[in-house]
Amino acid sequence: MTEHDAREEQQQPHGPGAGAAHEAPAHEAPHAAPADEAHRKAGEDHLAGEAPQEDGAQVGTGIETAGVPDAAIPELVIISGMSGAGRSTAAKCLEDLGWFVVDNLPPALIPTMVELGARSQGNVARIAVVVDVRGRRFFDNLRESLADLESKHVTRRIVFLESSDEALVRRFESVRRPHPLQGDGRIVDGIDAERELLRELRGDADLVIDTSSLNVHELRAKMDAQFAGEEEPELRATVMSFGFKYGLPVDADLVVDMRFLPNPHWVPELRPFTGLNEEVAAYVFNQPGAKEFLDRYAELLQLIAAGYRREGKRYVTIAVGCTGGKHRSVATSEKLAARLASQGVETVVVHRDMGRE
What is the pLDDT of residue 269? Predict the structure, then answer.
């Protein structure tokens, strides 16, 4: 992620439904347009059930979809994660893909948004909601809302944006803004508090994206790869090459260590190139055991993929590492991604550390 994402987290909501998450200033209320007043009253009519909010207001938590075909119930994506990790960028990407995006919606109102979408006669087929921990009753309300959605058989996914402490501190310092939870402490205190609050949600996430080393374009590419397709594939995989000397990717589900092969770095004529070079790839896979490893690991991934599908896991990140993330891991990632694609797995290749030297 770039240094500007901490600022993006403070911006206004995105998409045609963004206004649902913000109230107009009090001095503007008497001048509300008739259409706005009718919309407000229509929204109030849909509020069913009662759940406490911080200000004491009562909001609905039930989805009243009687008489609404199941096909009309919109698909739901919940975007959450660390402040400064790129939630706004992810939301903007979905908005560009035609999703109805609401930023900073109180979790207790998520079922109401789904209900309104279900009654839109197909005009709102996909809803993305950005939630964060600025609400004091965040998790109680979110758990209740998710349980309600599950009981109504609403298809929902949770996207969690993660980033390292160092990257988050750098982003907040670059925009000279405090962390929402730091209070009178330091930025790192707010990050620690937020990470602890979000620990359970991160474990429940369907997709975790680590943005520590991603810029805006790379994050958008990842979101496009996961959500741009019209038909949902059975399984989507990200194959990521990396260098062990730069640290393990925190969002890896599986880690492959290619350091058992000779390093092309010590071959003078190959050192300047990367694993994308044909000569480097040929050198790597002409080593004893290289082709056998690729064949057997591809077979193992077939077993793992079948298990993921049975368990309803639709996203997997396979991290392929070598010393510097330049030669062996890059060549292997390309070959492994091609094998997965040939098996019907939609695959994206990311070379995290290539070019860092």
Answer: 96
Phi, psi values for residue 38, rounded to 5°? -65, -40
Closest residue by Cα to residue 12 from 97, 101, 116: 101
Q: Which two tokens stand for residue 88?
A: 């706004």
Q: CA-CA distances (angstroms) from residue 145 to 55, 76, 148, 245, 332?
A: 19, 12, 5, 42, 43
Count Cβ atoms within 10 A of the Cβ of residue 74 and give its class: 0-12 exposed, 13-18 middle, 19 or more buried.
buried
Q: Residues with Cβ < 8 Å from 57, sequence gap 6 or more?
A: none
DSSP 252-315: -SEEEE-TTSPPGGGSTTTTTS-TTSHHHHHHHHTSTTHHHHHHHHHHHHHHHHHHHHHTT--E
Strand partners, 83: none
Hey, what are 341's tokens?
């694609």
Locus of tokens 């994308």: 276
Angstrom distance (rounded) from CA 106 to CA 17? 14
| Structural tokens at position 254 | 């599986």
Separation in Å, CA 62 to CA 42, 71, 151: 16, 19, 10
Please answer whether residues 240 and 299 qualify as being in contact, where contact means their C-beta atoms are separated by less than 8 angstroms.
no
In the DSSP assignment, the letter for residue 262 is P
Which residue ranges of the chain lie beneath pLDDT 50?
2-4, 7-63, 65-67, 231-233
